[in-house]
C-alpha cells in the first residue's frame, strides 16, 4: 500500500520505536513499566481517534473494548491454557465482533445520544461481568503463577508483554495513518463534516461508521489483554474504568483530533502531567478535575490541539505532522 511508504509514517515509527526500546537496551525496568503505560495510552487514544477524529462520533465508553479483550484473553489463558498471543488475538476479534453487532443500532444515533449510549454499554458490560461467577464475579480473577512458566517465568512474561504493547501501539498508529490517507478515510471525514451531504455524494454512512467502530475496537482489546496478562489479575472496576475513556478523549483533544500524531503527543503530555499531579500532595486527589478543566480549555480556545495548532502556524510541518 502506498501510504505505508509515506515518510511521515516512517518518522512516527522511528520516534515511537526509538523511545520504546530505550529501557530494553538500557536495562531499565522502571522506565519499561512507565513506557508500557504510555504505549497503552497511545493505543487507547489512537483507537478513540479513529472513530472520533475521523467520523466525529465521540465514544465516551470506548474503554469497554479494553475490558472485553482483557477478560476474554484472561479467561482463555487461565482456564483453557491458551498461549497469551492467541488469547489476545481472540480477545481482539471478539471485541470487534461485539462492536460490529452493537454498532449497527447505536451508530444510528448522533451527537449526545451516541455518547450517552456508549457510556451505557460500558456500564452494562461491567455489571454483566460482575455477576458472572465464571469470570470471578466482583472480585475478578487471579492468574496462577505457574502460567508464566511457559514463557520463562514472570520476568520474561513481563518483557514479552512489553514487546507486545510496542507492536500493538505501532499497529494502531499504522491503522490510523492508513485510514486517514485512504479513500475510506476521506469518506469518514466527509461524514464528520456533514453526514447528509456525504449521503448525497454516494457515501453509505451507516456502513462506513460500523466498519470504523469495528476496527477501532480491535486495538484497545489487544492492549487490555496484554495489560492484565502482565499484571496477573483482572477485576471489573479496572477493566471498565470510565475515566480511562475520558482521559483518552482528553489526550485526543489535547494533541489534535483527526490527526495521527495528535493522540501520541496528547498521551505523552497528559501522562507527564498526570504523573506530576498524582505525586503532588496538593493536587493528588484532583487530577481528574484538572483533566476536565483541561478538556474545557482545549475545546474553548485550542480546538485543533497541539499538532493542529502547529500545522496551522507552520505550513512546512504539514508534510511531516499528519
Kindly, what is the distance between the CA atoms of the first and last residues, rounded to a whole number of angstroms? 17 Å
What's the story with the biggest beta sheet? Answer: 2 strands, antiparallel
- Tally the helices: what do you get? 15
* pLDDT averaged residue by residue: 88
Strand content: under 5%
Estimate the global geometry from the Cα principal axes: globular
Structural class: mainly alpha
Summarize the structure.
The chain contains 15 helices and 2 strands.
Description of the structure:
The protein is an all-alpha fold and 322 residues long. The protein has helices spanning 7-20, 22-26, 29-55, 63-80, 84-106, 111-130, 154-181, 183-193, 195-200, 205-231, 236-239, 242-255, 261-279, 287-301, 305-313, and strands spanning 141-142, 233-234. Strands 1-2 form a two-stranded antiparallel sheet. The radius of gyration is 19 Å and the shape is globular. The model has no long low-confidence stretch (mean pLDDT 88).
Question: Which secondary structure elements does this structure contain, and how are they paired or packed?
Answer:
Elements: H1 7-20, H2 22-26, H3 29-55, H4 63-80, H5 84-106, H6 111-130, E1 141-142, H7 154-181, H8 183-193, H9 195-200, H10 205-231, E2 233-234, H11 236-239, H12 242-255, H13 261-279, H14 287-301, H15 305-313
Antiparallel strand pairs: 1-2
Helix pairs in contact: 1-7, 3-7, 3-10, 3-12, 3-13, 4-5, 4-6, 4-10, 5-10, 7-8, 7-10, 8-10, 12-13, 12-14, 12-15, 13-15
Amino acid at each position: 500500500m502506498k501510504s505505508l511508504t509515506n515518510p511521515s509514517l516512517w518518522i512516527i515509527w522511528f520516534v515511537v520505536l526509538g523511545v520504546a526500546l530505550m529501557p530494553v537496551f538500557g536495562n531499565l525496568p522502571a522506565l519499561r513499566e512507565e513506557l508500557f503505560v504510555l504505549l497503552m495510552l497511545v493505543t487507547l487514544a489512537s483507537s478513540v481517534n479513529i472513530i472520533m477524529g475521523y467520523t466525529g462520533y465521540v465514544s465516551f465508553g470506548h474503554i469497554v473494548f479494553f475490558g472485553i479483550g482483557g477478560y476474554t484473553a484472561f479467561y482463555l489463558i487461565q482456564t483453557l491454557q491458551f498461549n497469551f498471543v492467541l488469547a489476545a488475538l481472540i480477545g481482539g476479534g471478539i471485541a470487534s465482533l461485539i462492536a460490529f453487532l452493537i454498532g449497527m443500532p447505536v451508530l444510528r444515533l448522533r451527537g449526545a445520544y451516541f455518547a450517552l449510549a456508549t457510556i451505557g454499554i460500558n456500564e452494562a458490560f461491567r455489571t454483566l461481568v460482575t455477576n458472572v461467577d465464571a469470570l470471578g464475579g466482583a472480585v475478578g480473577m487471579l492468574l496462577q503463577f505457574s502460567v508464566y512458566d511457559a514463557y520463562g517465568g514472570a520476568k520474561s512474561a513481563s518483557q514479552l508483554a512489553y514487546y507486545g504493547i510496542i507492536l500493538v501501539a505501532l499497529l494502531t498508529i499504522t491503522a490510523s495513518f492508513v485510514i486517514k490517507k485512504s479513500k475510506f478515510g476521506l469518506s469518514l471525514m466527509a461524514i464528520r463534516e456533514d453526514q447528509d451531504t456525504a449521503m448525497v455524494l454516494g457515501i453509505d454512512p451507516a456502513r462506513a461508521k460500523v466498519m470504523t467502530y469495528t476496527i477501532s475496537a480491535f486495538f484497545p482489546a489487544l492492549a487490555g489483554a496484554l495489560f492484565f496478562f502482565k499484571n496477573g489479575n483482572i477485576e471489573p472496576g479496572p477493566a471498565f474504568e470510565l475515566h480511562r475513556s475520558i482521559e483518552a478523549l482528553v489526550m485526543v483533544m489535547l494533541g489534535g483530533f483527526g490527526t495521527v500524531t495528535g493522540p501520541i503527543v496528547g498521551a505523552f503530555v497528559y501522562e507527564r502531567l498526570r504523573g506530576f499531579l498524582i505525586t503532588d500532595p496538593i493536587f493528588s486527589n484532583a487530577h481528574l478535575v484538572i483533566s476536565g478543566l483541561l478538556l474545557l480549555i482545549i475545546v474553548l480556545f485550542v480546538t485543533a490541539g497541539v499538532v493542529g495548532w502547529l500545522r496551522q502556524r507552520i505550513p512546512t510541518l504539514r508534510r511531516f505532522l499528519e
